[in-house]
Amino acid sequence: MLTASLTSRVATAVAHPNIALVKYWGKQPGPGNLPATPSLSLTIAALTTTTQVEAAVRDSIRIGGETRPEPKIQALVDAMRGIFELPPMAIATDNDFPTGAGLASSASGFAALVTAIDATFALRLAPSARSAWARRGSASAARSVFGGFTTLCERDADWTAAELLDKEAWPLEVVVAVTDESPKAVPSSTGMERSRATSPFYGAWCESTRTDFAIACRAVTERDFDTLARVAEHSCLKLHALMLSSRPALVYWNPATVAATDAVRKLQEAGTPTFFTIDAGPQVKAVCAPGYGEAVADALAHVAGVVRTVISGLGSGAYVR
Ligand code: 2P0
Predict the structure, then answer these.
(1) For the chain, how many structural domains are there in total?
(2) Residue 110 lies in a domain
(3) Residue among 40, 138, 244 to mutate when testing ligand 1 (max atoms within 8 A of CB)
(4) Ligand 1 within 6 A of 140 CB?
(5) Ligand 1, atom 9: nearest CA belongs to which residue?
(6) 104 pLDDT more than 90
(7) Which of 168, 194, 219 is the last residue of a domain?
(8) What is the 3-class SS of the chain, one letter each residue?
């Protein structure tokens, strides 16, 4: 058992959500929350989770000012207690964007949580170790420990994320077109297990995702926007085909989601370097070459059903404030 230092008893960490360009959807059997396939993402600067962890007389979890039981957070803290001697703690976390609505709040949430626990109790974890712990909470959270373009794949017999390309090296922009701020009906963990168990396309999904990952990683390192656009849109549409072919079907889109993707297609036809991606929710994210964010946001803001747009650059990894 590793004893946590008690010199530092409170710390606040900040993390940003990330958007997968090659998607994760499906887990390996067994413990540890290991993805079935590798994934590639970019980190979104404009959306932020802030989490404070403080030593306390008993465990408590407050999200957006509301104290409530959070089994996934409690399970991660308890798992860390299997390795580190951690005292009871008060966790308070806030998102400056809608929670559980397909904007990756669990990614930024678990990345900020592990980073705050690490700082509060001076565990001195390496970023790769924080990433592996964050993955146990939510696999996409492993990627939010890092900034810029980040991969999550098997490394040194564990699944951790690592930065593939620095955010300054290729400053793409992202427009988030929000179409509905309510929480999703089916959580991601439930949805991906349903797809694994029921979709006839699941095997092809896993196999083709490994190929997409290799192509997309190369496109990022070569700053090849057109190749990245093609493989990322294909990964997104295959993900939603997998969801639609699950039983019962997982339908995360609404009419505005479809209208926003049509708008991105029209921009592409007019020569604008942009492509769309959609996660487990109805929001559309348009990734744009540097300098095109405002024009793309302007087009998406005029789409019926888009309630607001957010323009973002690429974000940093999780850090202590
Ligand atoms: C992704 N998503 O790669 C994919 C694309 C949503 C669609 O990772 O079960 O919250 O907690 O590991 O990370 C959302 O799933 O799932 C997700 P768990 P997570 O970003």
Answers:
(1) 2
(2) yes
(3) 138
(4) yes
(5) 189
(6) no
(7) 168
(8) CEECCCCCCEEEEEECCEEEEECCCCECCCCCCCECCCEEEEEECCCCEEEEEEECCCCEEEECCEECCCHHHHHHHHHHHCCEECCCEEEEEEECCCCCCCCCHHHHHHHHHHHHHHHHCCCCCCHHHHHHHHHHHCCCHHHHCCCCEEEEEEECCEEEEEEEECCCCCCCEEEEEECCCCCCCCCHHHHHHHHHHHCCCHHHHHHHHHHHHHHHHHHHHCCCHHHHHHHHHHHHHHHHHHHHCCCCCCCCCCHHHHHHHHHHHHHHHCCCCEEEECCCCCCEEEEECCCCHHHHHHHHHCCCCCCEEEEECECCCCEEC
For residue 265, tell me if it sits in a domain: yes
pLDDT digits (tens, 9 = 90+) for 280-301: 999 999 999 999 999 999 999 9
The answer as to whether 212 is a domain residue is yes
69 with 8, same domain: the answer is yes
pLDDT interval class at 98 (50, 70, 90): confident
Q: How confident is the model at residue 216 (pLDDT cuts 50, 70, 90)?
A: very high
Q: How do residues 46-82 score in pLDDT, each as one tens digit?
A: 999 999 999 999 999 999 999 988 999 999 999 999 9
For residue 195, how far is its CA from the centre of ligand 1 (angstroms)? 13
User: How many A from CA of 188 to the centre of ligand 1?
Assistant: 6
Considering the domain architecture, whether residues 146 and 18 belong to the same structural domain is answered as: yes
Q: How confident is the model at residue 102 (pLDDT cuts 50, 70, 90)?
A: confident
